[in-house]
Design brief:
- The structure is a single chain.
- By secondary structure, this protein is α+β, with helices and mostly antiparallel strands.
- The protein has one domain (2-173): 60s Ribosomal Protein L30, Chain: A (2-Layer Sandwich).
- It is built from 5 helices and 7 strands.
- The protein has helices spanning 39-51, 57-60, 74-86, 109-120, 154-173; strands at 2-14, 18-20, 23-25, 29-31, 89-99, 127-132, 142-153.
- The strands form 2 sheets. Strands 4-1-7-5-6 form a 5-stranded mixed beta sheet. The protein has a two-stranded antiparallel ribbon with strand order 2-3.
- The structure holds magnesium ion (MG).
- The site of magnesium ion has 4 residues, from β1.
């Protein structure tokens, strides 16, 4: 197994759409950044890359590269997931905590959970979405995301599937 951790922050800015976890949230401000500013997807990307010691998001998608201006952060997650699969691992589960003053994440948590699960090819029950307000932090102007991921060796999963298939076949023969 491998564990990964990712962290990101983006500043709120009026006049841009707000995207968190690949979901558009109704709000009067969005997150500024070179890409679409999706703070959760960026932290997930770094957690996945970190888990397989494959560098960080900036190494793959430098903010200096005009190709990533306004880019959909789904692209970043897909590349990180590709690196995870290349290293021979699959995602066991993801847990996250968002820290932001507004908007309230609670009403959107299930939608974000389903979207992140879809992006990672796992079930919603394998994705934790939690949110807190930044009490006493002085960061009401920003959104922050903390993410932990657990990976397991792809072959182990396959082997156990093969084992149970063999057991079933043996039972049938009996
Ligand atoms: Mg970022």
């Amino acid at each position: 197994m491998r564990i990964g951790f990712g962290w990101d922050s983006h500043e709120f800015k009026p006049g841009v759409p707000l995207k968190i976890g690949g979901v558009h949230l109704p709000h009067d401000q969005g997150l500024s950044g070179h890409s679409d500013g999706d703070v959760l997807l960026h932290a997930i990307t770094d957690a996945l890359l970190g888990a397989v010691a494959a560098g960080d998001i900036g190494g793959y998608f430098p903010p200096s590269d005009p190709r990533w201006k306004g880019a959909d952060s789904v692209i970043f997650v897909k590349e990180a997931l590709r690196q995870v699969h290349l290293a021979g691992y699959t995602v066991s589960n993801v847990d996250s905590t968002l820290v932001l003053a507004t908007p309230k994440i609670g009403p959107h948590a299930k939608t974000i959970q389903a979207r992140v699960a879809e992006l990672l090819g796992i079930k919603p029950t394998q994705v934790g979405i939690k949110a807190k307000t930044p009490e006493g932090m002085g960061t009401d102007h920003a959104a922050i995301a903390h993410v932990a991921v657990l990976l397991e060796k792809a072959s182990r999963k396959l082997k156990s599937k093969e084992r149970s298939a063999t057991k079933k076949a043996k039972k049938k023969r009996r």
